[in-house]
Each structure stands twice: as C-alpha cells, then as structure tokens.
Amino acid sequence: MNVMQIAERATATATAKMTARGVQVHYGENHALKDVDVDILAGTVTAFIGPSGCGKSTFLRCLNRMNDTVASARVTGEIRLDGEDIYDRRVDPVTLRARVGMVFQKPNPFPKSIYENVAYGPRIHGLTRNRAELDQVVETSLRKAALWNEVKDRLQAPGTGLSGGQQQRLCIARAIATAPEVLLMDEPCSALDPIATAQVEELIDELHTQFSVVIVTHSMQQAARVSQRTAFFHLGHLVEYGETGQIFTNPRDPRTESYITGRIG
Amino acid sequence: MQIDKHILSAFDRDLEGVQALVMKMGGLVESAMLDAAQALDTIDTELAQRVWAGDRAIDALEEQIHNECARLLALRSPAASDLRTVLTVMRIATNLERCGDYAKNLAKRVPVLGDLPSLPGAVGSIRRMTRAVVLLLKDALDAYIARDVAIASDVRQRDQDVDQMYNAIFRELLTHMLEDMRNITPCMHLHFIAKNIERVGDHATGIAEQVIYLVTGAMPDEDRPKGTSLSALTGNPTE
C-alpha cells in the first residue's frame, strides 16, 4: 500500500503509552462500549471520531477513570498506563488524573484568579516546594498554553473574566501544570471561534511532542488537521483505528467511509 | 462502490456535476479523434478545420472542470472515495485534454498531406488504429462511470494491441520511404500522426488506472504489458 506516503505522519516508531484491551462499559442496562482494544501511542495525537452516542467520550472517560464518578457506570476489561493497570485497587484515581489530565468541552475555569487556576493542581499534588517554584510552573504552563503574553500583567484577575478561547487555553494550562503524561480533550474547541480553535490546534500540535494527546471531536476536519492516528467509533464498537491519512483517503471499513464522507452511517 | 447518498444533497449534485463534465469532454474527444481520422482518410480539409476549431471547447471544459474541482475541494472538504473522485476527475480531464490536442494535431496535418503523394494503405491502418484507440478511450470512461475495475484492467491489457498496430504502421511507413524518397515527407507526417494516436492509447490506459485508484484506493502496481519494445522499431523486420 503506497497511499499518501508524503502526508503520512510519523507514528511508526512510537511505543504504546496506554493500552486498552476488551474494554466494556455499561451504564445500567445500556451497553455503551463493546469490547474495545486500542493502543494510545506515546508522543502522538489520537483523535476519536464518531456520531453522537457512539461511545467515544465514554471511552475517553475510561482512560482516567472519570466514569468512577458515574454511579451507574460499570467498566470491565483492562486499561494500562505504562504497563500498569489503572483500575487496580491500589491506584489512587486522583493521582492517576494528575498523570492523565483532562480538558472539557466548555471552558470551566475555577472562580479564582488566573494564577490560582494554574497553581491549584501543582499545589494539591505537592509538586512544588516553594512560591518561586510554583511561580515558575504557572509561567511555564501558561507559556505552553500560548496564553502567557496575554495574561502576564493580570495574573490576579479572575479566570472567568477571560474570553472563551482564553478560558479554554487557561484550562489547558491548568491541565498541563501537573505535568501529565497523557492529555485527554473532550471536544475542546466546540465552544470556540475559528481563531481560538486554530490556536488550540496549534497548541495540541506543539504539546504532543511532550505527551500523548487524545482528542474527541465532532469535527472530522479537526481530527484530520491535528491527529496522527484516528479511531472511528460506531454504536459502541471501535470500527477502525489507523493512520489519519489512511482513514481520510482510503478507509477500510464501509461504515467509516459512510461516516467521514457525510453519508448516512 | 458507494451508492447511498450524502446527507447534504448539494454535495451529490456537485460531484455528479463534475463527473458529467468529464463525460461530456470524453464524448467530444472521441468525436474529434474519429472525425480527424475520417478527414485524413478522405482529405476533407473542411472537417479537419472543424476538428481544429473544436479543440477550444475541449480546453474550455478542462478549465471548467479544474475550477469546479477547486471549489469542491475548498467548499466540501471531500474525504475518502469522494476525495478520490475529485482527484481522478482532475487527472482524467488532463488526460482528455492531451488527447484533444493530438486530434487537433492530426487535423492540422490533413491539408499538408492533401498536397503530397497519397499512401492509402498506411492511412487505412491509421484509421483502424484510431478506431481501436477510441474504443479503448470509451471503455476506460465507461469503466469510470461504472466503477468497474475489470473493464479498466482489460483496457490496460488491450493497450498493447494498439502498440503493436503502431509498430506495424512504423514498419509500413519505413518500407514506403525505402521504396521512394518522395514518400519521405508524407510518411514523416503519417508517422507523427500514428505516434500521437498511440499516445492517446496511453492516456486511455492512464484513465483506466485512475478507475482502479478510485475504486481500490491504490494505483495498480505491476507494470502493464507493453507492445513497444525498441527492438520492434529497429526497422529490420526479422519475420
């Protein structure tokens, strides 16, 4: 197969950061996710696409045990982070979520200052020893989130006073302040305008060299733009998972084809 | 192949629109080839003139197809088989435009040949070759519309017959030139014509390969059979 060789994005050498095997999720009677096997590669942006209710967000939430907070949810199967079972009883979900961070659909800054939004994670996880170190983490995180230049003169202003795009970048800065190894993003741009979306996408592209990014998106063009690997979910099944260029030029499964070309799936 | 419709029906209309333009272009090229061969056969300079002038319509269609495809890419962001449809439409339009140029070139030589010694045998061979090539072109375009890999593969195979016809004409012209030096000028013209028609066969093969790419997502990788080996053109027929 010699399709899209030039556009093929280097993922072949990446090792698996997270591995999921036979993952099933039930919400009460509802069987939301059926037997999903996925390797999330290190240093790679992986996009999850699929119609509403296909299980992509459910699966994303399994990766840092966010489903633990849903009373009716039952997760079976195995998910490993660096070979370690994250559903093991000895794993503290709070510590796990510092390693596997999350950014949500709507920007949700804490009702605190810009500085405190970013400093909160490192402080509760005890990642810094003194104020100077904490200042440094806040600055680095805000710089990585491409927000520093816009807010450096008003770090004590409330985070909620920023624009939507800035708030989302603040949430990303907050998520990366704990130096996560994997960053989960659940439709991070759906509430943003095109410019703010482009800034967040640029940020994702820069961040993925430092850690794995997994992004759930309804915009197939966004998946095509930012990811190296794409997984297509449909009715709780992982239908196809492969190199993004291959998925968008020559998908192997007819259901993927129907979905990405905008036909009835 | 995808037979179900897009949720956005305007997308279907756009895709069908560019493909209809390619078919229209194909029809014009087929007629231009046949008319040009007919004009050559009967030294009909008026018909040749019409073929010559008609190439402008083919060029205009190519430009229109490329513009429509650019719009489609920009506005609809086609993916997977839709993307391959747009890409193949563009390449086939380019193939057809070249074929139109060859028909025009043939037509331009008709008045010149009218003033030179006639070679009915060679002209008849060229006419038969033109018919074979036009049939290849037609089959390649039919394969495109039907998304039929079998027909497309058959076109690739049959191009070697055209190559062999070209070799035979080459030797025939060579014989005429050896017999009588006054035949050299018409034979050189007829040779360019034969070579151009043989090139149209290659473009038909190119279109057939686009069909295979459109349907399978990959270009056929094994080398297609070729009837032209250089040894066939040494001018020393061994048989």
List keywords for this structure.
heterodimer; A: 265 residues; alpha/beta; Rossmann fold; 6-stranded mixed β-sheet; 4-stranded antiparallel β-sheet; 10 strands; disordered N terminus; B: 239 residues; mainly alpha; Methane Monooxygenase Hydroxylase, Chain G, domain 1; 6 helices
Describe the structure.
The complex is a heterodimer of chains A (265) and B (239). By secondary structure, chain A is of the alpha/beta class. Chain A has a domain at 16-108 and 179-260: Rossmann fold, CATH 3.40.50.300. Helices cover 34% and strands 25% of the residues of chain A. Chain A has helices at residues 56-62, 93-99, 114-124, 131-144, 148-151, 164-176, 194-207, 220-226, 244-249, 254-260, and strands at 16-27, 30-41, 45-49, 73-81, 84-85, 100-103, 182-186, 212-216, 229-234, 237-243. In chain A, the strands form 2 sheets. Chain A has a 6-stranded mixed sheet, with helices on both faces. A 4-stranded antiparallel sheet of chain A has the order 2-1-4-5, covered by helices on one side. In chain A, a hairpin with a 2-residue loop joins strand 9 (229-234) and strand 10 (237-243). In chain A, helix 3 (114-124) packs across helix 4 and helix 3 packs parallel to helix 6. Chain B has one domain: Up-down Bundle (Methane Monooxygenase Hydroxylase, Chain G, domain 1). Chain B is elongated and about 70 Å long. Chain B has helices spanning 9-42, 45-76, 80-114, 120-146, 149-179, 184-216. In chain B, helix 2 (45-76) runs antiparallel to helix 3 (80-114) and helix 4 runs parallel beside helix 6 (184-216). The mean pLDDT of chain B is 91. With 239 residues, chain B is mainly alpha-helical. Chain B starts with 8 loop residues before the first helix and ends in a 23-residue tail after the last helix. Classes of the chains: A alpha/beta (265), B mainly alpha (239).
